[in-house]
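Thread: guanosine-5'-diphosphate complex, take 2
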Amino acid sequence: MQAGDTIAAVSTPPGEGAVALIRISGPDSLEVLDQVFRRQGGELLPRRATLGEIFEDEAIIDQVLTTVFRAPSSYTGEDMVEIGCHGGILLAAHVLELVLKAGARAAEPGEFTQRAFLNGKLDLTRAEAVMDIISARTPLALRAAAEQLRGRLGDAIAGVRADILQTVAHVEAWIDFPEEGIDPATGEILSGKITSALERVAALLATADDGRILREGVRVAIVGRPNAGKSSLLNRLLGMDRAIVSPVPGTTRDTIEETACLRGILFRLTDTAGLRDTIDPVEREGVQRARQVIERADLVLHVIDATTVENEAPEVALGDREILVANKCDLLPAGTKLPAGSVPVSSLTGDGLASLLDAMLRETCGQHLTAGQSLAAVNARHKALLESAASSLLAAAALVKANEPPELAAMELREALESVGRIIGSADTEEILGEIFSTFCIGK
Ligand code: GDP
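Output below.
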């Protein structure tokens, strides 16, 4: 299928580089190319790089490599052209300008992938994975996105959908053709089917935390009294990070957020103002902001100075997920008793940091992620749709159990089907009829 118009964009980031890529997609791709490109020998065969020149009013603009893809065998499913020119700052923009003059339209963000979806080349989870791959900031996030692009999540969702579809078909057959002698599914069989679909939905929902951690990272608030060693701990954790350390713009004046990739997981570490009661208005504001950071955090590192008597419980209520970090252990005589459940560390020497990291991963379910287990993890959009599917399935189960008319259960099941279908971008009621006829063999 070819969309109405032909779009084009520079697909590589701006700046100097060896090459830049200009992509064209749509029914007029080859005509557009023809107006700006001259082959230097060789046929313009699909999927073969062809050397040639981009020209403007007979002047040569650049020597380029061009690849043509014919519909439907392309990323978008349409005729496509990729022009690889040199990566000059002005050059790629200039080539694009010529392509636009030749009749293409500037593509909207994500429009190539959107066309790929509309043309059935990718389901929605795979289309989202393309974006996840581009924005991945840790090796684990990249691996998860690559698995999603290969269809791991889309296939799982399609499996759940097929289950529900079959159940709807069963119920609908029961409603529509009772006299046909179709073995009417007993309430028990139906309940069993709904329960098994619910279990699959629940299993997918259970990956939502992982999905958020992989895509957004773990938000960690470092809190404690002034001088407990919060900044030192932050620096020490950042010092362990040899891969990605970058300040996040837009953080408030008195809280510092840094990101670090530790054991493959992205941690967003925020060093907060010291927590204590104060009458100083500026410090008060800092404490107020610290409390906001704590509220939003996935994990709180509560740092205490292990050498002082202030090892008592915090004055403020901290989040559920909290690790008590007994800092400055290098100053303690061997065998000193520490508060129960605390992790002893020295931000000065780095002792105990590995155990602290273990505890951080344990508390935020990052541990099984780093162990390389399943990486099919749903995102916030999938989660919302799965939750609505689960509530429809629960309602359907209750209706079946209460022996209510099958029409009511069918309605709920259709809602569940619709929600799950929207995850992968397909929700076709025609399919339900197809399912009835193929599996129930109504032969008249
Ligand atoms: P914050 O106010 O909680 O951010 O504390 P800082 O990180 O600024 O540390 C306060 C003081 O404690 C500084 O002089 C640090 O050098 C010192 N300090 C921090 N951590 C340790 C540690 O593990 N051992 C020792 N001996 N000193 C530390």
